[in-house]
């Protein structure tokens, strides 16, 4: 018997650890593009899932952005079926704000969510690797979008509908998935080497320069940074929720926050409270500039009038900052 390759063993262990959190009889949906990362993930799931009596589905999303994408999706489905998956395809229209990358991502995640809901899946498994995490952190740093973006992608999270989104390979290098997927007829997406996309430029140009100039281990360091920031954010979130219970009240057509409490808190906590209140009540995210303008209603009050925000308006009335729907 040939020995198990270290790459396959590493990925199977990562998948086994992730699946251990799921109950016997659960259904998992693997997002399968046909690339090395997702194929290595699918092969490991096919090996590990039967041990826990876990039902396996795969979904290949055809974005229709390249000639012959339907044939590629059909071929990937066949590979998944050969591994024992209930293999499916979803064809989506890619349109929307934020550029083609963002629109394709939104369409893909919507298709995965719909397929998981239809199949009553417990979890969706995604093939993001440590290298993807490092790229995400660098992109967030370049955009100046704050600590939230520098946290990168969470290894696991549960959405509002109770669906688990899991990334078992987030601690695995891309070169490992490539080695593990050898012989699985990998499809290499041309978009993954197209320099029009910022993520490709980070992957092909920026990270190699950082490795060359600063030494090896940059990707691992960026991933560790993301993990540490997520830990800090989780602790912060607990503090915020405890604080909000005491300082927030429902108001007509909205919600209000105590001016004195906002002013008394440190800036970092005050700004997080404002963002969380607006997000939870109105489902919108504030920019840093918008957040600071709202904070001034508590910390630098000079009689300024209402502030127009996405989906709501903030104004000071007496000893409270009141947010009302627009």
From TrEMBL:
Which compartments is it annotated to reside in?
Cytoplasm
- Outline the extent of the tRNA(Ile)-lysidine synthase substrate-binding domain: 258-321
Q: Which CDD domains does UniProt cross-reference here? A: TilS_N (cd01992)
What name has this protein been given in UniProt? Answer: tRNA(Ile)-lysidine synthase
PANTHER family per the record?
TRNA(ILE)-LYSIDINE SYNTHASE-RELATED
**Range of residues in the leader sequence:** none
The UniProt entry's coiled-coil ranges are: 219-246
- Kindly state which reaction or reactions the protein catalyses: cytidine(34) in tRNA(Ile2) + L-lysine + ATP = lysidine(34) in tRNA(Ile2) + AMP + diphosphate + H(+)
Primary location class: cytoplasm
Residues that bind ATP, according to the entry? 33-38
Q: Which residues form the tRNA(Ile)-lysidine/2-thiocytidine synthase N-terminal domain?
A: 28-204
Q: What is known of its domains?
A: The N-terminal region contains the highly conserved SGGXDS motif, predicted to be a P-loop motif involved in ATP binding.
Spell out the family assignment given in the record's similarity comment.
Belongs to the tRNA(Ile)-lysidine synthase family.
Is the keyword Cytoplasm assigned to this protein?
A: yes
Top-level lineage group: Bacteria
Q: What is its EC number?
A: 6.3.4.19
Q: Which Gene3D superfamilies match?
A: 1.20.59.20, HUPs (3.40.50.620)
What terms describe the molecular function in GO for this protein? tRNA(Ile)-lysidine synthase activity
Pfam families in the cross-refs:
ATP_bind_3, TilS
Question: What keywords are assigned to this protein?
Answer: ATP-binding, Coiled coil, Cytoplasm, Ligase, Nucleotide-binding, tRNA processing
Q: What class of enzyme is it?
A: ligase
Q: What does this protein do?
A: Ligates lysine onto the cytidine present at position 34 of the AUA codon-specific tRNA(Ile) that contains the anticodon CAU, in an ATP-dependent manner. Cytidine is converted to lysidine, thus changing the amino acid specificity of the tRNA from methionine to isoleucine.
């Amino acid at each position: 018997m040939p020995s198990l390759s270290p790459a396959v063993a590493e990925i199977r262990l990562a998948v086994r650890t992730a699946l251990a959190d799921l109950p016997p009889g659960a259904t998992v949906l693997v997002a399968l593009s046909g690339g090395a990362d997702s194929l290595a993930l699918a092969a490991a799931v096919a090996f590990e899932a039967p041990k826990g009596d876990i039902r396996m589905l795969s979904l290949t999303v055809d974005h229709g952005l390249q000639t012959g994408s339907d044939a590629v999706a059909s071929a990937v489905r066949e590979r998944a079926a050969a591994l024992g998956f209930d293999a499916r395809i979803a064809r989506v229209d890619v349109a929307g704000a934020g550029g083609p990358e963002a629109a394709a991502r939104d369409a893909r995640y919507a298709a995965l969510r719909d397929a998981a809901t239809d199949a009553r899946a417990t979890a969706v498994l995604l093939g993001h690797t440590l290298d993807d995490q490092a790229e995400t952190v660098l992109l967030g740093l370049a955009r100046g979008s704050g600590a939230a973006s520098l946290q990168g992608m969470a290894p696991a999270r549960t959405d509002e509908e109770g669906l688990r989104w899991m990334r078992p390979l987030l601690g695995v290098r891309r070169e490992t998935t490539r080695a593990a997927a050898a012989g699985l007829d990998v499809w290499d997406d041309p978009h993954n080497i197209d320099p029009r996309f910022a993520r490709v430029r980070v992957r092909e140009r920026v990270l190699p320069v950082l490795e060359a100039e600063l030494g090896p281990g940059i990707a691992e360091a960026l991933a560790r940074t993301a993990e540490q920031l997520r830990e800090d954010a989780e602790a912060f979130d607990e503090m915020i929720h405890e604080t909000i219970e005491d300082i927030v009240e429902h108001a007509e057509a909205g919600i209000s926050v105590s001016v004195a409490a906002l002013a008394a808190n440190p800036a970092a906590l005050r700004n997080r409270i404002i963002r969380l209140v607006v997000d939870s009540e109105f489902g919108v995210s504030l920019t840093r500039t918008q957040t600071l303008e709202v904070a001034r209603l508590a910390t630098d009050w000079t009689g300024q009038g209402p502030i127009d925000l996405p989906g709501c308006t903030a104004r000071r009335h007496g000893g409270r900052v009141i947010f009302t729907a627009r």
